[in-house]
Structure formats: structure tokens, C-alpha cells
Amino acid sequence: MPAEWERHEGTWFSWPHNRDTWPDGLEDAERALAGAVRRIAEGETVHLNVLDERHRRRVHDHVGDSDGVEYHLIPTNDAWCRDHGATIVMDQRGARHAVDWGYNAWGGKYPPYDLDRRVARGMADALGVPVLKSNWTMEGGGLESNGAGTLMTTASCMLNPNRNPGRTQAEAEAELGRLLGAKHVVWLDGELAGDDTDGHIDNLARFVSADTVVVPSAPSDAHHEAMFDRLADEIASVRMDGGNSLHVVRLPHPEPVNWAGNRLPASYANFYIANAAVLVPVYRCDADAEAVRVLSRCFPGREVVGIDCVEIVRGLGAIHCLSQTIF
Question: What single string gives the DSSP state of each residue in 153-220?
């Protein structure tokens, strides 16, 4: 499984349309995503799943004319393409394959999800690549690769009875090796307040190079700081091939973002690495600028830009959750 910073063919989104996910702010979320799409399209093709021709016209009104945007009539139940979309991997000959996980909306939390279960195969057909079918249930937001055989994930997702009852860690590692080429799996556990995924890694810890991981730090947030410190210590203790350890860079954590009386799973770790830029979710709070500065130091060859995700995160995800990388 390549690292996200490697050169992309494109980025794939399932355009938001579900008003149960965004009951009061769907149009605001669409406008925010449209800005991200235009920025990503400066450096790669952006693929957009839409429901039908009428929906395509609506999305086009948001995105505008761009030679870098392609539309696909692949209907969805919801917008979280990182999770229901295909995971694109490369075999030893450099040929692409599309991994089709057995998606079940994070343990059956949000039925129906019948359309979302078909998205990975639809993407594979559109790309003309063969499908690698897994009999495991998993989501792309729960998998983080350094591109060199090390993968981070969480037991609270992959070994959760609501996804893979009765399965073991050894069996999971065998499947991750078979499909993603993982030689070393780093098992972590943690969960943001408001996170409905049971603890996706893309809100908690992210590779920024083959041997460096960013982990949030929230010294004024008692709910999260002990968890983040534990994760940082666990990651720093990992030994890579050759005995070298992983380096940890601490990333700010936004002040609580609330909506309708509930805390939302806002995290700067939910950034997306595109060819032209690194898109960092920002939340109109004091730590936004520092998060952009930290990630700018991590990616000196790319522009790092903030993408306002206040409306998007009301759907309980941010820019990385919405995107899927196409190598």
C-alpha cells in the first residue's frame, strides 16, 4: 500500500447528499468541499461519484468548469469515500488493484448502506483495474501506511465484533499482509470524543514520512491529552527494520468544536496529502495557524493550506474521511 504522499493519479470523492448526515448544513458542506476539489484538481484528476444526471448538474454548479474533474454515476448512501471506496494498491510488478472491503457503515450504525457496499467495485470498473475482495470488514480511515511495509491501525475497529466477530490479531495481520503488503502492523487504540467509527487512525496518528508520525497534543483538554500522550509513547517505542525507532512530531489539537449540544470529532490529523498541496482541516480556532505551521515543516516540498471544515465535521468527519487516494 503506497504512502499518501506518493504521486497520485487522482483523488476520489462521493459527493455529499444525505440530509440525515447534514440535517441543517448540507449546502455549506458542499461549498466547503467544492473549494477543496478545486485546489486538488490543480495537481491531479478529481473523480466525483454522483447519484444521477440531475445530481451531476448540481455538483457542477458548486465545483465549476474544470478539465481536472471527472464525474461517475456511482450512487451512494453517504459521502465517506475513504471508508466505502476502494483501497488502491500496487503489486510487485507495479500493477494496480482495488481492494474491496466488506463495508458495513462502521458496524451497522447507519443503515441502509447497500449502495455504499458497491462503490469499491464501481470505482474499480471505472479505473479498469482488477478487484481484490476481502472477507474482512474494514474502512480506509482505519488504515495508515508509510509506503515501506509498516501499517498503523486500531484494534477497536479491525477486531471489533461489530465488524469481524471472532477474528484474531494474527488473522488480521495475515490479511493486511496479503492485500496491502504490510510486513509490520502497529496496533494502537484511542478514540476522539464524538467519533462514530470506533477509533479511526486518521484522526489519531498519521505518517508524514517513512519514519515519522504526527500525533495530536492537547494539554488543555483533559479528555484527550492522556490518550494522545500514550499513543505518542507507544509509537516512539516501535522499532522498524534495522532497529531504528519511529519519530513522533506533536500536532496541535483544536479546541472543542460543538454542534447541537454534542462535541464533534475535529482533528488536524485528518489532513489530506494531494499532489499540489496538503489540505489541513481548520475549525476557526486559535490552534489552526499552528497546525498549518507544523505540517508545513513536515512537508517542505508542498504548499500546506487550511480547508474550513466546520460545516463538514458536523457530519462527523473531515477532508481525509471524504477523500480516497488513487495511485
Answer: EEHHHHT-TTTSTT--HHHHHHHHHHHH--SEEEEE----TT-SSS--GGGT-EEEETTEEEEEE-TT
Q: Name, in order, each residue with C-beta under 8 angstroms of 282's C-beta and a sequence gap of 6 or more.
A: 268, 288, 291, 292, 306, 307, 308, 309
Q: Please list, in sequence order, all residues whose beta carbon lies within 8 angstroms of the beta carbon of residue 236, skipping any fewer than 6 positions away.
A: 245, 246, 247, 248
Give, in degrees to the nearest 5, the angle at Cα 80 between 299 and 268. Answer: 35
Helix (H) or strand (E) holding 226: helix 222-236
Contact by Cβ (8 Å): 257, 291? no
The answer to whether the beta carbons of residues 63 and 39 sit under 8 Å apart is: no
- Give me 110's grid cell: 447507519
**What CATH number does the domain located at 10-326 have?**
3.75.10.10
Confidence check: pLDDT of 241 > 90 = no
> Pairing state of beta strands 87-90 and 247-252?
unpaired
Active site residues: 321
* Cα separation of the two ends of the chain: 10
Query: Nearest to residue 79, comparing CAs of 9, 142, 21?
Result: 21
Grid-cell match 475513504, residue found: 82
What is the tens place of the pLDDT at every residue in 75-131?
999 999 999 999 999 999 999 999 999 999 999 999 999 999 999 999 999 999 999
3-state secondary structure of 117: helix
Indicate the SS3 state at residue 56: helix
Run of H or E residues at 33: helix 26-40
pLDDT of residue 222: 83
Domain ranges of the chain: 10-326
